[in-house]
Design brief:
The protein is mainly alpha-helical. 74% of the residues lie in helices and 1% in strands. The protein is built from 23 helices and two strands. It has helices at 2-8, 14-28, 31-49, 55-66, 71-88, 90-95, 107-116, 120-153, 158-174, 180-194, 220-239, 260-281, 288-302, 314-338, 344-355, 362-367, 370-391, 396-400, 405-424, 427-445, 451-473, 477-480, 483-522; strands at residues 197-198, 205-206. A hairpin with a 6-residue loop joins strand 1 and strand 2 (205-206). It holds the Pfam family TctA. Keywords: Membrane, Transmembrane, Transmembrane helix. This is Tripartite tricarboxylate transporter permease.
Length: 524
């Protein structure tokens, strides 16, 4: 598949490619851009270290403050927060068995058991090295396949683009933790919000209720801050328990560096994790949490020390963390080259880029090839700095985990209000954020995922405009005449149909096993 992709995509002449690389790297190696990368790294590490404060929430909050920056500087802040959070979230996963972000779920499988054995320092070192290796491997994927994938997708017409948007929506719904129906409802809610404003074909107003601020559509940055930031804080307030004795972090970190024998096992696990994560990352909406679990299972099957997995395996920890970070390169590639967010953080990033006047999609990388290398350089610098900070033996991180949630809630609420207002100095945006925060709280309490809602809001206009152009131009037959559209529709249908069928089959096997066990008890 990869050779076909490269051969189908238009290739850049060598002088143009060299200039693109030089311009892309030079745009990052400016003192102000490097300063913003450092700022993003500190914020991201803190975000990852606090359980419950997700990278999506942090990027959503930061987006309100970065919109006045130049695009490269804003991207530097947002991407670095995302990268650094991938390192910081391993700390609570290892020390208190609580994932800092969903991407570090698999870290808890072996990280916390290692910490209980007095090997917390070793676990954090292995995690940091694996995360850095996975991130760099993902950056290579972005650099090699970003432009070819965009060149291939640029040949898409309205039928293919509509099918691509449907593919992205259904993939995010299909991986909504088994909540297919609720994911569909959330996606439908986002698509409904996307219809507010002006008709993409005729320009007529619709569903604005006479509110002048809605003529341009529902502002998506306040929606994102409300659904991911305010809603999470409100949910933590509702579910907060006073007894935190069980969450006291492990303070005995022990040794930090692995010996020669463990180092060899680390490299093998990194290879497994990087290969798994880079492939999973290219699939829209399949995030690091899923990649980490898949890679942990792969590493267990290929290990000579299977008995250690789940009880304190350095191989399982490294494979999971390498894989979950390796998805970032593929996620950025699909987001920028196809215009379909690779995960919820990328959905937030698309919203910010659209305000900057940058439209992710097939034309972006082919028109501005230097942007590929700018993004890759930002990710590389952020990875190196985050790795260096992660390897500093700071016992203050243990003290940081003991900070009361109440203080954190106040800080986040203030940032939600100030960040939303600063977008366009509009009180209306703050009201939208507050309303979406309450809706997001309802969604969290009743199990509706917020990702499909945001994706529906952002991709809704793109889906509608391409669908209507197809129907006006060639009619429904255009979809049948496009093999690419048919394949994307087939994959989308499978993403919605197969998970419930698989769950039904598992329940049937469990029921049969229970029935057989009952018969064995009755029949001596």
């Amino acid at each position: 598949m990869i050779p076909e992709l490269v051969s189908l995509a238009p290739q850049l002449p060598l002088p143009v490619a060299a200039n693109a690389v030089t311009e892309g790297i030079g745009a990052v190696l400016q003192w102000d851009t490097l300063l913003y990368i450092g700022l993003g790294m500190l914020v991201g590490m803190l975000v990852g270290a606090f359980p419950g404060v997700t990278a999506t929430m942090a990027v959503a909050l930061a987006s309100g403050f970065t919109l006045t920056m130049e695009p490269i500087q804003g991207l530097a802040v947002l991407l670095t927060i995302y990268v650094a959070a991938q390192f910081g979230d391993r700390v609570p996963s290892i020390l208190i068995n609580t994932p800092g972000t969903p991407a570090s779920i698999a870290t808890t499988f072996d990280g916390y058991p290692l910490a209980k054995q007095g090997k917390a320092g070793l676990a954090m070192t292995a995690s940091a090295l694996g995360s850095a290796f996975g991130m760099i491997f993902g950056i290579i994927v972005l650099s090699l396949f970003g432009i070819p994938l965009a060149g291939l997708a640029r040949q898409f017409g309205p039928p293919e683009m509509f099918a691509l948007v449907v593919f992205g929506l259904t993939m995010m719904i299909g991986v909504s933790s088994g909540r297919i129906f609720k994911g569909l409802v959330a996606g439908g809610f986002g698509l409904l919000l996307a219809t507010v404003g002006r008709d993409p074909i005729t320009g007529d107003q619709r569903f604005t209720l006479g509110i002048l601020e809605l003529n341009g559509g529902v502002p998506f940055i306040p929606v994102i801050i409300g659904l991911f930031g305010l809603a999470e804080v409100l949910n933590q307030m509702v579910t907060h328990r006073r007894d935190r004795a069980a969450e006291k972090p492990i303070s005995q970190l022990g040794a930090w560096w692995p010996g020669r024998e463990l180092t060899g096992r680390l490299f093998k696990s990194m290879g497994i994790g990087a290969g798994t994560g880079s492939v999973v990352g290219l699939v829209p909406a399949v995030g690091g949490d899923i990649a980490g679990i898949i890679s942990w299972d792969n590493a267990k099957r290929l290990s000579r020390h299977k008995e250690e997995f789940g009880k304190g395996s350095i191989e399982g920890l490294t494979a999971a963390d390498t894989s979950s970070t390796a998805t970032l390169g593929g996620s950025v590639t699909t987001t920028m080259a196809l215009g379909v967010p690779g995960d919820s953080v990328m959905a937030v990033l698309i919203g910010s880029m659209m305000i900057w006047g940058i439209q992710p999609g097939p034309a972006l990388f082919t028109n501005e090839p230097s942007l590929v290398y700018t993004l890759a350089m930002i990710l590389l610098v952020a990875t190196v700095l985050s790795l260096g900070l992660s390897l500093v033996r700071m016992k203050s991180m243990v003290k940081l985990l003991e900070l009361k949630n109440q203080y954190l809630w106040v800080i986040i609420l203030v940032f939600c209000m100030v960040g939303t207002y600063s977008i366009s100095n509009s009180v209306f945006d703050v009201f939208v954020m507050l309303i979406m925060g309450l809706i997001g709280l309802f969604m969290l309490r009743f199990g509706f995922p917020a990702g499909p809602a945001v994706l529906g809001l952002i991709l809704g206009p793109l889906a509608e405009s391409n669908l209507r152009r197809t129907l006006i131009g060639d009619g429904p037959e255009a979809f049948l005449a496009s093999p690419i559209a048919l394949v994307l529709f087939a994959i989308s249908a499978a993403a919605l149909i197969l998970p419930p069928l698989r769950a039904m089959r598992v329940r049937r096997k469990q029921a049969m096993a229970g029935k057989d066990e009952g018969l064995s008890v009755l029949i001596p």
